[in-house]
Amino acid sequence: MTKGKTKILVLGGGYAGVMAALRLAGKTRRLQTEITLVNGLNHFVERLRLHETVVGKQTRQPAMTEMLRGTAVKFVQGWATAIAPEARTVTISTEAGTQTLPYDYLVYALGSRIEQQRVPGVEEHAYLLDAFGERSASALQTRLATLRPADSVLVAGGGATGIEAACEIKAKHPQTAVKLLSSGDVGGFKGVTIQTHMLDALAEQGIELLENSPVASVSETGVALPDGRFLDAQVTVWCGGFQVPDLAKVAGLPVNRQNQLLVDPFLRSTACDTIYAVGDAASPVEDPGTPVRMSLLVALITGALAADNITAVLKQKQQKPLSFATYGQAIALGPEDAVGFNTFPADRPVGPIFRRKTAVKLRNFFVWMLFAFLRIERRLPGFFFWVGQGRYARQQRKIKRLETAVSPLESGD
Description:
Layout: E1 6-11, H1 15-27, E2 33-39, H2 50-53, H3 64-67, E3 74-77, E4 79-84, E5 89-94, E6 97-102, E7 105-108, E8 113-114, H4 122-125, E9 127-128, H5 137-144, E10 152-156, H6 160-172, E11 177-181, H7 192-204, E12 208-210, E13 217-219, E14 222-224, E15 230-232, E16 235-238, E17 242-243, H8 247-250, E18 261-263, E19 268-269, E20 272-277, E21 282-284, H9 296-314, E22 328-332, E23 338-342, E24 350-355, H10 356-379, H11 391-411
Parallel strand pairs: 1-2, 1-7, 2-3, 7-20, 9-16, 10-11, 10-16, 11-12, 18-21
Antiparallel strand pairs: 4-5, 5-6, 8-17, 13-14, 14-15, 19-20, 22-23, 23-24
């Protein structure tokens, strides 16, 4: 442990990182702790609305100091460049130079970015729905403003991010040919019924689909396919899979193929119990009873749980395992359309499906609510709660029953 106060360092100022910092600040205020939040940007980004920013819509971008106002959390603007688990230090790069920050407990909340390295030319020529970088969402907004009627836009990625981007761009630039390219089926990530609603919306808006077409390379004038075809496009928007920065991997910590830190049921690194990972940066090695995917709900839950567990350690109490249920999901299909559905409790569509203005209102409400949870947590630490906290225990009992049933067969009895 460092001398004096217990130092808790939070890397990343997204939903998971901010939730962790705010909750820690409230729950440990009577303990001798020093909490520092490190983030590359000096403002908060509403990631669920990045597709709106590319067409010029104004979104909330509160200063990070405003998000932390009234708490004892110290904010440092900088980019984490290295972690030394044995020394318990993190190196960050700031405008003033390089700093080394010590910690007793680290919350790894760096989030994820759209993966760019797998396909040649993506980094140099494609735009991303990202909050920073030379080809970020703001750079895409500037480029789209110069489109001519005869120009075309190609969006690569048939998941929710690609669909939302294609629909928003088409709504803003109806005369522009917008094509949606996918290495598999477009919209197939939530089953046939939800996929049908999304395909209907894409067809209504005149967005051309190019399915089962992986990209070989990207250039300034379009994309090349493995079969030799070349698709012309004045603007290419890359919405492929997501990947976490490789900071933990370089530090020698166990990660998966997406560089997510492998964590135990309490969100601790499987190799280091003073490092907790939350949000998109974490991958549980045990089944918590509900699929864990990259989402803002999971970010808030894991951020809050990491704060609760670190607090429990400091108070010499028992930590709690990750366990939760999902509520629902809504995917934007342009400014006037969306598809929304219930996913309680295990992230599978259940019950009625909502479309058009009803779904738009539902989505806008939940986007507002997820952000509001952070505001309320700042004022009322410990306010945020979630359902399904018994699902992990039920899953473990199920696994034990299965192991007991298989064991006699393996022994030959």
